[in-house]
Amino acid sequence: MKRYFLASLFALTLPALASAQTPSEFAALEKQVEAARVKYKIPGLSLGVLRDGKLVYTHGFGLRDVAKKLPATPETLYCIGSSTKAFTATAVLMAVDAGKVKLSERPVTYLPYFKLRDPETNAKLTVSDLLCHSSGLPRTDFLMLAGEGTLSRKELIQAVGAAKPTAKLGEKFQYQNLMFAAAGEVAATAFGMPYEKVIEQKIFAPLGMTRSTLSVAKALADKDHATGYDPASQKPLPWRDITATAPAGAINSSVVDMAKWVEALLSEAKPLLSPESYAAMTQKHISMSPTVDYGYGWFLDKWKGASVVEHGGNIDGFNAEVAFVPEKKWGLVMLSNVSQSPMAREIQELVWRSLSGEKPQEEKPAAEPSKPATPPTVPSKDEAGSYTSTTPSVTFKVGFEKDHLVLTVPGQPPYAMQHVTGRVYRLTPPLPETFKATFDEKGLTWEQPGVKLVLARVKENTYVAPLTVDALLEKMLTAAGGRAAWSKHKSRVDTVAVDFENQGMQAAGEAYAAQGRQAQRLSILAVGKKIGTLSAGYDGKGPWISASFLPPQEIPPSERARAEADLSLGLLEPRKLFATIELTGTEKVGGEECYVLLKTTKSGERLTEYVSTKSFLILRRDTEGPELYSDFRPSGGVIVPHKTVQKNPSMGDIAITIKSTRWDVPIDPKVFNKPK
């Protein structure tokens, strides 16, 4: 559920297998695509290119199934993920053309059960808002994944209605899968048939997309289907069945079939849509960034002044990109069998250059960063330092070695940096030029495909503390109940209630702690139903997390620091847990002045605690995201915060309330072990 920066990209050599003789004009493109596929560790990829509104080139690269050594072909079926959203938008607009739906109407007109938590948004949100991510709700993918298989589409739409918005209606772009599920149901209601039938009968059939399907079972029964892979481990992943949220991303298709879809779009969606509806679909309805807008089911971008209409798709084991340039009658379809990669963005650049007649730009590997022709406007060595962001909580360290900068991110190898222009640097090949850092007076802006992160430069600490770190640590222990009170406790079991405020879900369960270990075992609830389980813990060696609805998860190194700090040892013997502890200044938390305590583990993970200058209780802790503590009350002779609010970058606010605590009770040691 979390986004990671600078994923390691090492070459995996797999054979490129052509589906047919390659036209000489696309030979250079083919070579570049294959090089990029290897660079990004993509097992298999299929590509289709359209010119003058017609399919002129298809090719399969690599393997659709590594274990069986089966080649990828233009006919290979992949899951297209969120590229499905454009089909859903088209279905709604077809209902508009048929006089069955009005974009200005509220969804409740067609879905009587549709209701949102915020009264103002509920009263004003329209069908149009469902199609352009303007509802004010954040991503509720945790609810979507947990509810799949246990909740119907109607129940998921009801559940997301209970989620707390993070913006006003239309205030900003916030990607929202379940609003597209609602849009799909609007189309289904209008046409009087299930959403899947709407897509099959109203779009697939007229366009001749005979091998496309919304059924995972049918896709897997096809002899030419791809196996999906995890980008980091290269291990195969099972196809994820998202029937309940099908309008957001359930279509499975091939390059050949999808090219028929793009051909229709390049003819203004004839025979599917009226000119007015096609124009509405491909015009701006909300801005995503200063340079990218969103229409209905499509991102709207530019390439050298020309308008580009595109949408990618990411789902377990698969990555897709569908794009077209209306004024030039260009189009492309790329389908691949790896969960995420920068290929979606790079493939556009490669194809558009090829179609425009530009000569390919060969990227030559460089062992050492070469010196630029013009020197940087600020000496490179002066850019060295630490740069930090609070949301997500991450610290980049930039060092200067020999004659170049080196970027280090916790838990990853160092990356050499190469000067581009001014104060802009990129990572050296074979990493793509789209991974770059721009320095300024305040810090640096990090950019990579799909990510833009602003980090502030950490100033040299000139703070003169009124007390020593050890004195502060002792006051913190005393405020929490004292050494004697904490030392006598051998175990603890909390009964907790959890509110995923921005997800429309709740949870209930228990949290355990004993002998330097901890664990939480929770049942996830939505619309009054148990929809899954979530467990997390620290077994004394490292943190783990397990969910009934997710594949195995990698845990960021920073979570180890948080887990260890949560143990009683974090209060009793902090010097044993952390290599360094610094008192760096003061800052306010909720209006209360706090000491800022920076703790660093031996492996380099950083944890920041904000300690009240009055009560000496910890009011906030930052690792991956801020945690706020409140409602401090006595329990078992010590002082414990009975409410914690986690500010999770991907899931929003998670409020955890302790309902009761049992001290010094027997706990089965197995509870601390990761479930098999």
From TrEMBL:
Q: Which residues belong to the signal peptide in this entry?
A: 1-20
| Keywords from the UniProt entry | Signal
- State a single Pfam family of this protein: Beta-lactamase
Q: Which domain of life is it from?
A: Bacteria
Presence of keyword Phosphoprotein: no
Q: Which InterPro entries match?
A: AmpC-like, Beta-lactam-related, Beta-lactam/transpept-like
Which parts of the sequence are annotated with region: Disordered? 357-388
**Beta-lactamase-related domain residues:** 32-346
This protein is called: CubicO group peptidase (Beta-lactamase class C family)
